[in-house]
Amino acid sequence: QVQLVQSGAEVKKPGASVKVSCKASGYTFTGYYMHWVRQAPGLGLEWMGWINPNSGGTSYAQKFQGRVTMTRDTSISTAYMELSGLRSDDTAVYYCAKDAYGGDSGDFDYWGQGTLVTVPS
Amino acid sequence: QSALTQPRSVSGSPGQSVTISCTGTSSDVGGYNYVSWYQQHPGKAPKFMIYDVSKRRSGVPDRFSGSKSGNTASLTISGLQAEDEADYYCCSYAGSSTLLFGGGTKLTVL
User: Fold this and answer.
1) CA torsion angle for B4, A10, A64, A100 (degrees, to 10)?
2) S-S: A35 plus which of A42, A50, A104, B76, CB 3.0-4.6 Å?
3) Closest Cα to residue A93, out of A110, A108, A113?
């Protein structure tokens, strides 16, 4: 069965960086884009970007351009999302989500359990 | 890019129908037939329900249906059940390999 298992919660100081991992199993990792979505406490979902695990190609939301980097290690079927220049309003649960149909359709059929990143003000 | 516009809350009694709207622009909702809907219960990851405006994911009850007119997509839930109480989010392709979520709608089953 498809599983996405994310790394544990993090507490970071303002200005620091955080790198969240997402280990995939149960399907061909390189066959489906991986997206990252975040959710601040009590607020809605926010799409951050995707990575094509096959080519390493990426697309980021304009809001995060210059601050986010998405990478992958195909040898261990793991995707990574690194966010730099952290601010208090980056405090959120960060999810990885597998694209259902291979590309950038926005159809996320499996989600990780979420990783809480806290940036105290 | 601003989030797609959804009502903050809707409510209905068991057995009734409710519709949740998702309004964007011609650059996102209106420009593509790539709107999806997600259900999220408190403390849980979102669940994929509808894709390509109106197609139900396998296993999703046919009480859930999607549609689109112009720049507004809609999710209709008929025969409301207590377990439908959750937050609902729309998501649209917005061109240039980017995606946009709606602000979310809290559904209360009275």
Assistant:
1) -60
2) A50
3) A113
Nearest to B52 by CA among B67, B30, B40, B41: B67
pLDDT band at A101 (very low <50, low <70, confident <90, very high): confident
pLDDT of A67 reads 98
The answer to whether the Cβ–Cβ distance between A106 and B103 falls below 8 Å is no
Please name which of A38, A45, A44, A42 lies closest in space to residue A81, comparing C-alpha atoms. A38
pLDDT score recorded for residue A121: 87
Q: What is the pLDDT of residues B62-101, one digit of tens each?
A: 999 999 999 999 999 999 999 999 999 999 999 999 999 9
Q: Do B34 and A106 touch (CB under 8 A)?
A: yes
- Pick from B45, B98, B101: CB nearest A113: B45
